[in-house]
Structures are given as C-alpha cells and as structure tokens.
Amino acid sequence: MKKELAKIKLFQNLDKEALNELANIAKIKEYKKGDLLYSDREKIHTIYFVIEGVASLYKPNPDNTKKVVFLFGAGDVLNEVIIYENTTLLSCEFLAPTKLLEIDREDFVKVLEKSYPLAKGVIESLIYKNRVMSHQIKNTSNSITVDRQIALKLYKLARDFGIETDLGTEINFDLSITYLSEILGAKRETVSRQVKVLSELGLIKVVRKRFTIPNQNTLLDYFHGTYQN
C-alpha cells in the first residue's frame, strides 16, 4: 500500500506516521472505461485519489450534454472538497481503465487534523483547482478563437497524458470530437471544422479518437499566434 501512496502528489511530503495511518485506512479499487464514480450533488463519504488512468469531472447540462471542468490522471485527488461538505459539486466518470486509492472521509479528516503538511497540501490543491477554473473562463472567452482554444487544450493534454511515439506525443486515451467540444464548451460542428484545419496544417494527427501532437512547441506557438507555416 505504501508504494501506491507514494504515487499520490498530496502524500509526497508526509512523515512516516501519517503515511502509516493512511496505509491502514486506504483501499484500492479498479474501474472500467465509462464507469460513473459519482453524480452531481450526490452525497458521498469517500475521498478518491488516482493511481493510474483518467477521470473526467463535469457538470451535466439540461440538454444531456456535459461541461467538462477537469481531467485528472495519476497522482491527482478528485474530490478533496468533500472534507468540508460531503455533497459533490460535479459528476465523475472514467475515460480509460482507472485504478483509485479510496479513503473514508472521516478517517481521512482524523489524519488531516494531526498532519500540517497534509492540511497544507489539501489547501494548495483547492487553490490550484480554483486557479484552473479561472483560466478556463478566460480561455473560453469570445476573445480566443476556437482553433486556438483547441490548440492550447491539446497541448496541455499531451503534456499531462502524453506518451512518446514515432509520430510525436500521443494523448493516451480516446478523445472524441464530441467530448473535446464538451471540454471546450463549444459547438461540436465548430470543433470538428477547426480540428480538420489543425490536421491539414500538420499540427495534429487524429486516428480513431487518438490525437497525436508531432511537435508540442509548434502547437503552443499556434495558440500564441506566432506559428509560421
């Protein structure tokens, strides 16, 4: 269990006593691609940490579409907000087979109350997520065109979930045009057209829902408006 705990970012600066306590209360569970972990506004009593895989946190829309807010991978905590209130703010599903480390909320709080580094880490994690949401609002504003939004998002996904191949950096999970549009909060038709443009420029390659970025820096240049074909 301690090897699994060591993979979680929030636990990397803890002393042996705190790690031993966490090891005694943690459980590991595996999920399939497409599984729903919890729904929006659901009361839950477990804190989840990703050991491996990809988790999508999203807000359901009235028209049955989604607004994807976060994509989390190995080392991330999904729902530390329930430390303060045990009602979820978002739904969570898996985009790939995923292994989680799970800890009961009340047991986790007992360790938290005795460990300053853990409490500090939780606060920093919440601050980081608030900052990400602020950046999302900025980057989905009308001042940034959809093609540049796509370029930035694919750059970040390649950075966070990429594996190196002969063709470039492949985002290591299936990503449909529909889901990409839900991440961006843009119309599917618009996203589809702009993905085609980026593909024709050679900035991305798409084969059966797998995106590959031949050169991440070039894609970032496109976002900044400094790309030269």
UniProtKB/TrEMBL annotation:
Residues 144-217 form the HTH crp-type domain. Residues 10-129 form the Cyclic nucleotide-binding domain. GO terms for cellular component: cAMP-dependent protein kinase complex; cytosol. GO terms for molecular function: cAMP binding; cAMP-dependent protein kinase inhibitor activity; DNA binding; protein kinase A catalytic subunit binding. Keywords: DNA-binding, Transcription, Transcription regulation. InterPro entries: cAMP-dep_PK_reg_su-like, cNMP-bd_dom, cNMP-bd_dom_sf, HTH_CRP, RmlC-like_jellyroll, WH-like_DNA-bd_sf, WH_DNA-bd_sf. It holds the Pfam family cNMP_binding. SUPFAM superfamilies: cAMP-binding domain-like, Winged helix' DNA-binding domain. PROSITE patterns: CNMP_BINDING_3 (PS50042), HTH_CRP_2 (PS51063). GO terms for biological process: regulation of DNA-templated transcription. This is Crp/Fnr family transcriptional regulator.
